[in-house]
Structures are given as structure tokens and as C-alpha cells.
Amino acid sequence: MKKSTLVLAASLLTGITHVAHAQPAPLNYSQVRLLAKQDLEAEKYEAAEKDALQMIALADSPDEAEWARMILGQSFYLRKMYEPARAEWNKLLTANPAGTEATVTHLLLARSYSADGNFAKAIPHYEAGIAGFDKDAEEDEADKPQKKVEPETLGTSTILSLGLANAYYHTEQYELAQKQLEKVTKLTEGVPILHMIALTRTSEIDFSELRLKQAVAGFDKIVTLKEDAPSLKQYAKLQSERASSWLRNNGEGTHGIQMRVNLENSAQDKKMNSAIQALIDTLVDGAIVGALEE
To answer: For 15-28, how does the pLDDT look when each residue is reduced to its tens digit (9 = 90+)?
Structure first.
């Protein structure tokens, strides 16, 4: 009995030793990349940061290292840590300004500057990012924007043009903003909420520049659109009444007097900024998570 007990104890000890010495196989780059995707989707951003650092250590090529650093910046951005995020993305542009992911990097930087209200710094990155996407679209006919589509399938450059127009608007570059908004307005006729946002910004610019008849027409059109957006419609109705009153009392134009209506930094303006930022975030975040699946 004593001997068999000793044998059993020895066997158990041997098994425990084997278990204790057994180490899990280290993850490779692809496995950690998938883990990063899962953590981003689960909103585990601190875990995604650790995944990205591990990806950097495991990267065997410049492309793999670029993607890892992009994810690292993303893990900061999604926690509203904009400066650390930009530090990582700027490293990518400094190291390889014409790299394969430069277009996406510009867009990441653009939206991070827009997110904390630094529209002037966002503009060159929006411009570079849109130029990159437009170039890709020329090479791929299937990627051209279509008219009557759902928001999630709109041409990428269309939504980004809305972001660029918003940045121009907030830096009072109204002519440039109008050019972008004209394109967006035409391409979003089948997507009422985006059409309303673009038309609202256009009408605000007309009002700011005292093109009052155009402003009234634009605001009035927003009110009649078939879209459940009571707050935006109420705002448009109010601005139409203000512009109409100004038109009755002063007539069209400035009459040589330097006048401008400032509609920025109002509660409605902040809602507009948030709506545009949310569209761009959805677009870019989806592109990143989608790429991690490849």
C-alpha cells in the first residue's frame, strides 16, 4: 500500500511538472493582428494598444510595421488621446510619405485635428487623403461614387469632402467650402440626412456672405425634405426667418458695408460638427477593422 502510494505520488508530481513546464506557443503577427481587430471591436482599447506594440515587435516588413503603428495610434484616438495618436501617425508620414498607407494616415490625422477643433491643421491632411482616394477611384471604375445609395456605401471621397468642406467653413474659406459642398449635395440627393447637412452648411455660408435670397431658398428646402430631423429643420426654419427679415429690411447684399453673419460655435453648429465627425469616424474605423480581416 505504501509503495503504490509513493508511485502514485511520483506520477502526479511528474504530471504537474510537465504541466508547469508547458508553455503556450507564441502568437505570430497574423494572430496578434486578429486579436487587435477583436479588441477594437469590443472597445478594449488598452488591450488593442498592447496588441499593436506586440505587432510592432513581430513585424517582418515595413508594411506590417506601418499597420501596427496605425493601430497603435487608433487605440489612442478612440480614447480621445489625440496627441499620442498623432505622434504615431506622423512617424509613418515622416518615415515614408509616399507609403502604401499614406492616404489612410492623412485621413487619420485629418479627423483627429477636426475632433479637437483644429480645422486649419486638418485641411492639408483632408486634401491629401481625398486626392489619394480619388486617384485610386480612377484606377478602379467599380469604386466610383453612385447617386442613390445608402450612407455606408457612399463613395469614400464624398463623405471626406463633407469633412473638408466643414474644415473650410470653420476657417472662413467659404469659396473653397462651397465647391466641396456642391459636389456633396449633388451626390447625396438619395441620402436625405447627408443631403440636409451639406445643404445646411451651404445655406449658412450664403447667409454669412449675405447672399440672402439663396440662403432663404436653401433653408426652406431643408424644411421640406422628407427626413425625420426635427432639430435641424427647426434650425433651418429659424435661419430662413432671420435671413428673410434681413432681406426685407436691408435688401440683398452688403451694399459695400463689410458685414458677416457668424453662425459658428452655436449649439446647432456643434451638433453639425458632431454629426460630420461621426460619419467620418464610422467610415475610417470601418476601413481599419475591415483591413485587419484581410
So the answer is: 544 544 455 678 89
Q: Which residues contact 212 (CB under 8 A, 6 or more apart)?
A: 206, 243, 244, 246, 247, 252, 253
How far is residue 93's CA from residue 102's CA, in Å, rounded to a whole number? 7
Residues near 74 by beta carbon (within 8 Å), at least 6 away in sequence? 40, 48, 52, 85, 108, 285, 288
| Selection from 162, 242, 180 nearest residue 208 by Cα | 242
What is the grid cell recorded at 38? 477583436
| Residue-level pLDDT at 139 | 65
pLDDT number for residue 145: 52
Question: What single DSSP character describes residue 25?
Answer: P
> Nearest Cα to 214, choosing from 231, 234, 199, 235?
199
Predicted local distance difference test score (pLDDT) of residue 246:
86
This model's pTM is above 0.70: yes
Closest CA to 34 of 48, 23, 53, 45: 48
CA distance 35 to 57: 15
Which of 12-16, 38-42, 241-245 bottoms out in mean pLDDT, i.e. has the lowest?
Answer: 12-16
H/E/C letters for each residue in 193-259? HHHHHHHHHHHHHHHHCCCHHHHHHHHHHHHHCCCCCHHHHHHHHHHHHHHHHHHHHHCCCCCCCCC
Per-residue burial over 132-144, b if 16 or more Cβ lie within 10 Å, else e, is bbbeebeeeeeee
Q: Between vectors from CA 203 to CA 274 and to CA 125, what angle results, nearest 5°? A: 50
- Grid cell, residue 209, equals 456672405
Q: Is the pLDDT of residue 152 over 50?
A: no
Q: Is the pLDDT of residue 285 over 80?
A: yes
CA 219 from chain centre, in angstroms, equals 27
